[in-house]
Specification:
The chain has a 6-stranded antiparallel sheet with strand order 3-2-1-4-6-5, with helices on both faces. The chain has helices spanning about 15-20, 35-45, 100-105, 110-115, 125-135, 135-160, 170-180, and strands at about 65-70, 80-85, 90-95, 120-125, 160-165, 185-195. It has one domain (about 15-195): NADH Oxidase. It is built from 7 helices and 6 strands, in the order H-H-E-E-E-H-H-E-H-H-E-H-E. The longest helix has 23 residues, at about 135-160. The two termini are about 30 Å apart. It is globular, with a radius of gyration of 16 Å.
């Protein structure tokens, strides 16, 4: 599915987004819009240039992250797991059906995951970075996922959405639930939703 084009301006300044960003764990039942999801994915790992550089920095432009979104309540998109294709700004469905409740169960029962309209999942292919940088590449991958997640958290704030970073989950179980490749390690979730 081709996503709507991202916006590169806003009525919220970067400074305001930094000042207002807070972890929000309670969401309303309102749907995210396709435009909002598009903007969040673009902020995470969207193409910044025609040369393929992305919006979040990456050590040596190795780009070890694969970005997925578990959709529960987004207008115009059926629930399921989607992979973000950053070069073409598209999402490709990998699994269909309601996955949020099981994702919450595999995230130590966290209600913020259960109530989210969508959960962004960053998975790392470590070899993309460690082939070049050796063991130090492990640290670089962790830095990369922090950069990408912070982009999402600030973008959510600028859009007036609630978001919270989630690190407590069963890594192997999540890999199996989402059908990730053996070399893809889930590292970081961002739960997203509208607030009252």
């Amino acid at each position: 599915m081709q996503l709507p084009g991202p916006h590169v301006d806003s009525t919220v300044s970067l400074e305001q987004a930094i000042a207002l960003r807070r972890s929000v764990r309670v969401y309303s039942n309102q749907s995210l819009t396709l435009d909002e999801l598009s903007q969040l994915l673009w902020a995470a790992q969207g193409a910044a240039t025609t040369e393929g550089f992305r919006n979040a920095p990456s050590a040596g432009a190795s780009y070890p992250l694969e970005t997925y979104v578990v959709v529960g309540n987004v207008e115009g998109i059926e629930p399921g797991l989607y992979h973000y294709e950053n070069g073409s700004h598209e999402i490709t469905q990998r699994l269909s059906g309601e996955l949020i409740a099981e994702l919450s169960n595999n995230s130590l029962g966290q209600s913020c995951v259960r109530e989210a309209a969508a959960v962004m999942v960053f998975a790392a292919v470590y070899e993309r970075t460690t082939e070049r940088y050796g063991d130090r590449g492990l640290m670089y991958v962790h830095m990369d996922v922090g950069h990408a997640a912070q982009n999402v958290l600030l973008q959510a704030t600028a859009l007036g959405l609630g978001s919270v970073p989630v690190g407590a989950f069963k890594t192997r179980t999540i890999r199996g639930q989402l059908g990730l490749e053996e070399n893809e390690v889930p590292l970081y979730f961002v739960a997203l939703g509208k607030t009252d």
